[in-house]
Each structure stands twice: as C-alpha cells, then as structure tokens.
TrEMBL record:
Gene3D superfamilies the record matches: 2.60.40.1820
Domain Late embryogenesis abundant protein LEA-2 subgroup: 49-129
Protein name, entry field: LEA type 2 family protein
Originating organism: Lysobacter korlensis
Pfam families: LEA_2
Chain positions covered by the region annotation Disordered: 137-157
Length: 157
C-alpha cells in the first residue's frame, strides 16, 4: 500500500514538472521559393517570392538578398526589405521587380513559347529576427521549376 502511494506521488510530481516548461520554442531555418514570375511589357520581371517560417515562434523578416539563376544562367539578384512578421509555421509573399539578364529573358521566352517548365535556383541570405530577439542571418538555397500558367500570358508559376 505504501509503495503505491509513493508511485502515485512520483507520477503526479513528474506530470506537473513536465508542464512547467511551457511550449517548445524552436527556431528553424526559413525557406524561400519563387511562387510566380510575371514578364512585364518592358522586359522586367515581377517576382512573387514565398517566404516560409518553419519555426514554432513568429519571425520578423527584415531583408532578403538572393541570386536567381534560370535554366542554368544567372538572371540577377532579388533584393527586398519586406519588414514583415510571419507567424509560426506560416508563410507570406513578397513582390520584387528587377531587370533580368539577356540569357534569362531568352530562357523564359523559350519556356513560355513552348509551354515547357523553366528550372530555377536561388542562393543567398535572409535576415530575420526570431520573436523580438537578436537578428540572425539564414542561408537560402533552393532549386525548383516554374511552368507557364494556362490563360495567363507571360506568367510562370
């Protein structure tokens, strides 16, 4: 009888101690990917960049600087100062406009005209502040592909 009381007491103490820490505050590497490229009439590209926060806490995304390559050719740099807070395990979209290289323009025009996908890669950094703490630099490295959007001329998704 006495052993079962000690066992019950030990269980209660362990259960209460487990609750004392609160939710886990995990900071994970964010990610970025291109959600859409729209080729403008003047030849510039409007890019919609999706920033993903995989952390269990909100993060404020202060700046972004990544090199974009399409079809293996350097296209240019995407830079932005979004100054947005993205909630835990959420994402948001930032738009930037830039003038791509001639080789990138030709690769995008070919993909749009032929209805084929366009491979791209991003490499660079994003500066973010996890939940009002010290700002940190996170490396972004991503490769994927975009396809022409049906019914939307000049749009790759």
């Amino acid at each position: 009888m006495k052993a079962s009381r000690w066992l019950a007491l030990a269980f209660v103490v362990t259960s209460v101690a487990g609750c004392a820490g609160g939710p886990v505050r995990r900071v994970s590497e964010p990610s970025a990917r291109i959600q859409q490229i729209t080729v403008q009439a003047d030849g510039s590209w409007q890019t919609q960049l999706r920033i993903e926060n995989f952390s269990s806490i909100p993060m404020r995304f202060d700046s972004l600087d990544v090199a974009l390559s399409v079809a293996g050719e350097p296209a240019g740099r995407l830079t932005a100062q979004p100054a947005i807070t993205i909630g835990p395990e959420s994402a948001d979209v930032v738009s930037t406009t830039f003038a791509p290289s001639v080789a990138a323009k030709l690769a995008a025009a070919d993909a749009l005209a032929s209805g084929r996908s366009l491979d791209y890669s991003l490499a660079g950094t994003v500066m973010a502040t996890p939940d009002e703490k010290r700002q940190r630099s996170f490396e972004i490295k991503r490769s994927s592909a975009l396809s022409p959007a049906p019914g939307l001329p000049g749009v790759l998704r």
